[in-house]
Design brief:
A hairpin with a 2-residue loop joins strand 5 (86-87) and strand 6 (90-91). The chain starts with a strand and ends with a helix. The chain has helices at residues 24-27, 80-83, 123-132, 156-160, 167-175, 192-202, 210-213, 262-265; strands at residues 4-7, 31-35, 64-68, 76-78, 86-87, 90-91, 104-111, 120-121, 142-146, 164-165, 180-183, 221-224, 238-240, 251-253, 257-260. It is of the alpha/beta class. The mean pLDDT is 94.
């Protein structure tokens, strides 16, 4: 069996200098305390009665880290509970309640590059992007929206300046049998400043998280902050994106990966 893997994830990391601007980047920032092999001697190395640093190879204990972060940091899967307390008239499910089969399926990359920050993707353009892949969507496909936003990862513009799906486009994907929709932007909706601008100008509250709120009526799952979609063809690969099982959580971190060669292996 000969398989090839492409990493579709961004790292969980502390903010880079100049990256944060008080917006989404600050909300999703992680704090990581790195503990060296010397620093963990009291906490880990000495838990064995009578052991001293002389009993450790070179006097070293173990390397470790302590993290403080939201479940929406890094590349992650959103559960319906994130969107609203109910979905399809029932209590919305949390990340630990979702079936694993949704997160290992054929992938489809839709090329939506060239949009300005704040642009809303509507049904017609989404359908045209699907047509350009050469085949219709199949129920259960993992749809990956390629905006090229990951190229700005590590900058303040990454966090708030990006396009996203409108509500009708989101509903259209779900109507094709799609349960998992991924994006290389921080969110499936447009950047927060653009939603806020349009709400302030129109007073239309339905413009706020309109793609997310589709989950009130239709259960579906998002992968946010994908990366390296430009290394993939439109089709011909599987996506594995199993979320970490956090009890009762609205999301779970995942190491999203594209896998080539499974068809031949089967």
């Amino acid at each position: 069996m000969s398989l090839r893997f492409v990493d579709l994830s961004v790292p969980i990391q502390e903010p880079l200098p100049g990256e944060l601007n008080g917006g989404m980047g600050a909300i999703l920032a992680a704090s990581i305390q790195y503990q060296s092999h010397e620093e963990t001697r009291p906490e880990f190395g000495m838990m064995f009665g009578g052991a001293t640093e002389k009993d450790m190879p070179g006097g070293f204990a173990i390397g470790a880290e302590k993290l403080q972060l939201t479940a929406h940091a890094g590349t992650h899967v959103d559960a319906p509970w994130h969107y609203y307390p109910t979905s399809e008239g029932k209590p919305a499910r949390t990340i630990d309640q979702l079936e694993l089969e949704h997160f290992f399926a054929p992938g489809v990359v839709l090329d939506l590059r060239g949009h300005a920050p704040g642009d809303r993707i509507e049904v017609e353009e989404l359908a045209a992007a699907v047509e350009r892949t050469g085949a219709p969507l199949a129920p259960g496909d993992v749809v990956c929206l390629w905006f090229g936003q990951d190229e700005r990862f590590g900058t303040k513009d990454y966090w708030d300046d990006y396009p996203g799906l409108g509500a009708e486009a989101t509903r259209w994907l779900i109507a094709q049998g799609i349960k998992v929709i991924g994006t290389d932007a921080p969110g499936l909706d447009r950047g927060n400043p653009y939603m806020a601008r349009d709400f302030q100008e129109t007073g239309d509250a339905s413009l706020l998280w309109e793609a997310h709120r589709v989950g009130i009526d239709h259960e579906y799952f998002q992968i946010e902050k994908l990366a390296n979609l430009g290394e993939l063809p439109a089709r011909g690969f599987y996506v594995a994106c199993f979320p970490v099982k956090i009890k009762g959580a609205s999301a779970g971190w995942c190491r999203a990966v594209a896998i080539f060669g499974l068809e031949a292996a089967g």
